[in-house]
## 1
Amino acid sequence: MKNKVLIKVLFPELSTDYDIFIPVNEQVWKVNKLICKTIFDLANIQYDIKNDNYIFFNKVTGKIYEDNEIIIHTDIRNGTELVMIAREPGL
């Protein structure tokens, strides 16, 4: 495996999806912040980088990824479709 994988991120809140390369050697929470920042920048919406209220899950399996998992140790590979949703308050 190389150092990045190409995934599709579906963002229902904005009714859009993006193809994004993500690093495989980073933790899920870091990749989550990078994806959120990128999507909000592309949509021209202000995003508070301290805000960590989004999670992503695998569209096919429904698996929710834990923040401390490293991407390479998950089932995220080229072509994986992830859905980003707002985290429930208190979770």
## 2
Amino acid sequence: MVIERSGFLLLAGTLAAGGVGGWLAHDSKSQRERAVVAPVAEPPLPVAAPSAPVAVVEHAPSTPGCDDSAGMPEDCPAVGPADEGVCSNVAAKRCADFKAAFKPRVAQAAVACLRHLKPNEMCDPSRVNLCGHSALMAACPDAASGQSGAPLEAPGNATPVSIACDAILKGCVGVPLGPTSNDCRQTLSGMTDAGRASMVACLATHCADKGLLGCEGLKTAPPARPQ
């Protein structure tokens, strides 16, 4: 058989190319199969850090109860020379009343309020009395006097505040818009014994026109007992 040299070389090149291509295809397929079946490396499990010791929170001791016996009122304000003859020094007079009728911490708040009044406000009785009233409304409640709504006559409620309010309420029976038991007890809770006695005496005759607000801290002599 006679085979031309050029034809032979072409045939040999074709066979060689086919062999190389087949090997490359086979090798590529093998690599893909290995990639599929190769096990996937699992990430390492996280190592738990040692837990910190649990802090034990201790409850702070309860704060002491409300106490109006601690406090020191400042000096009473004085009206300047320019106001003399125009103002009757209402603030100074009522300041002395507040100090005598209110417990120390309550008096301290009332006097501090008076000292912050403007000169024209010191001549206004309503504005001056408001300082005393605001201080009384912020006073510590008389826990034993039945301020939670219990009747004043209930056993265990016989305190100076409840006794005074009992007398006041009985004297104000039938008066329109008379004081309530809660209002009376809140007002008298911030007062001294002298202050409560003055309230009872004042409201015995002025429940209708002055009421609780008008009698707060007023120095009133107790009514004379019948002979």
## 3
Amino acid sequence: MTITITPFLWFDDNAEEAIERYVSAFPDAEFVDAQRGPDGKLFIGTFSLQGQELNAMNGGPHHRLTDAFSLAVSVETQEEVDRISEELIAGGGTQGPCGWLVDAFGLSWQVVPTLLGQLMGDPDPEKSGRVRDAMMQMTRLDTVGLQRAYDGG
């Protein structure tokens, strides 16, 4: 028996616009399927980001997305951190603390360079503590600043 778990996101009435934004922000992303109502408007859309399938539904204003749920994006370079963050906050989103952001549709994301995990995973508590403290002062995560904190500078 195969079990699949797929995040399911509830939007008021702009799920299709959100899917299009997300698919454009990531390489290896696609709009997979659309179930439409009689009026042609998207009801449920399935999309894939980096191999992870997600569903989005136009469900009306009854439920709102909150930062109690977020999608974490792990990237290799500062250029990827910057590009993806900018694409996600375009059109009304906001950059938050420690690499978190809320996109224009209300979905929370964490855009995190893999370097953060490497540096925070150092067994030396002084080094990893400096990295943690530096991260806590950042909005968008900065690989140069994280490395500088790790190195003690």
